[in-house]
């Protein structure tokens, strides 16, 4: 990180010596200087230097007054006092008002380097602490969000959509029909649900069509519903087969290939994709629905 410096001293030669040291030892850039406090108080909030070297004894406004005023205006700069004064009361007052280190006059290169490097180390440590604090805030926010989700829970609709998203068909037109069909089945007791699943699929499509009319005032037809659902499930079959071709041990492939599809049909689809056969695997809408119920029950 390149640090910026601002120097306040009414002695031009002192300012030049400090600039030379900063430049010669690649300590940073001097972005401003002043020979009295009024200019410094005006410039520093605008230039926003990292480190300010300020003389204690200045006309009109001394170094302690400069630091006090800048600190009061929430300046983030780090202040190093330059002074010949050794009186304990004055030094104590300077530290109380925000001075972090002293450089004694006459200027000594080794002391300047040592003090500036100490300030830099302190700044780096503050940056590390701030990064940890931000990280902890992020973790706490995540914990809070997770706790909120655990307390409120995911809706059945959200859980179904998550599965369809994993299958890669959430954007398919038939995905909405699958969600509504599953919700319709979940709203009944287990005996009624089993009875409905034992019926012909055309009966379920008719029930879903009536649900659209009564709950959403949407007019559709059974054939269109069936076509959308079968197209979406076929897409899911192809997606899972492709996962198996790329990685037979893929977690989603392992999870879905035997649960919502017949594994033999998945193998046929894989061979079809590879160009080994002329026909792909077949789907069973009923097995697909029953498989999703199994997954939802185990989550």
TrEMBL record:
Transmembrane segments: none annotated. Residues 4-120 form the Response regulatory domain. Keywords: Kinase, Phosphoprotein, Transferase. The modification 4-aspartylphosphate is found at residue 55. One of its GO terms (molecular function) is kinase activity. GO terms for biological process: phosphorelay signal transduction system. Pfam families: Response_reg (PF00072), YcbB (PF08664). Coiled coil: none annotated. SUPFAM superfamilies: CheY-like. It comes from the Bacteria. PANTHER family: TRANSCRIPTIONAL REGULATORY PROTEIN GLNL, TWO-COMPONENT RESPONSE REGULATOR. May play the central regulatory role in sporulation. It may be an element of the effector pathway responsible for the activation of sporulation genes in response to nutritional stress. Spo0A may act in concert with spo0H (a sigma factor) to control the expression of some genes that are critical to the sporulation process. This is Stage 0 sporulation protein A homolog. The lineage of its organism: Bacteria, Bacillati, Bacillota, Clostridia, Peptostreptococcales.
């Amino acid at each position: 990180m390149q640090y910026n410096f601002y120097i306040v001293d009414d002695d031009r030669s002192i300012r030049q010596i400090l600039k030379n040291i900063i430049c010669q030892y690649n300590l940073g850039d001097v972005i401003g200087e002043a020979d009295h406090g009024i200019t410094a108080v005006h410039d520093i909030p605008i230039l926003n230097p990292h480190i300010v070297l300020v003389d204690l004894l200045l006309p009109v406004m001394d170094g302690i007054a400069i630091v006090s005023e800048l600190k009061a205006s929430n300046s983030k700069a780090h202040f190093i006092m330059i002074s010949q004064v050794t009186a304990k009361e004055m030094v104590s007052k300077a530290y109380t008002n925000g001075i972090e280190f002293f450089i004694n006059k006459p200027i000594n290169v080794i002391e300047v380097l040592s003090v500036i490097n100490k300030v830099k180390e302190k700044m780096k440590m503050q940056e590390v602490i701030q990064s940890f604090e931000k990280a902890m805030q992020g973790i706490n926010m995540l914990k809070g969000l997770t706790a909120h989700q655990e307390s409120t829970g995911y809706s059945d609709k959200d859980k179904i959509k998550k599965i369809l998203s994993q299958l890669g068909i959430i954007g398919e037109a038939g995905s909405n029909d699958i969600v509504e069909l599953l919700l319709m089945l979940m709203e009944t007791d287990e005996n009624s649900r089993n009875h409905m699943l034992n019926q012909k699929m055309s009966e379920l499509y008719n029930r879903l069509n009536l649900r659209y009319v009564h709950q959403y005032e949407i007019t559709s037809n059974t054939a269109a519903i069936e076509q959308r659902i079968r197209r979406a499930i076929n897409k899911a079959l192809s997606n899972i087969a492709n996962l198996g071709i790329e990685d037979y041990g893929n977690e989603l492939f392992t999870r879905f290939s035997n649960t919502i599809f017949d594994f033999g049909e998945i193998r046929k689809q894989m061979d079809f994709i590879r160009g080994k056969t002329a026909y792909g695997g077949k789907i069973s809408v009923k097995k697909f629905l029953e498989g999703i119920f199994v997954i939802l029950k185990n989550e």
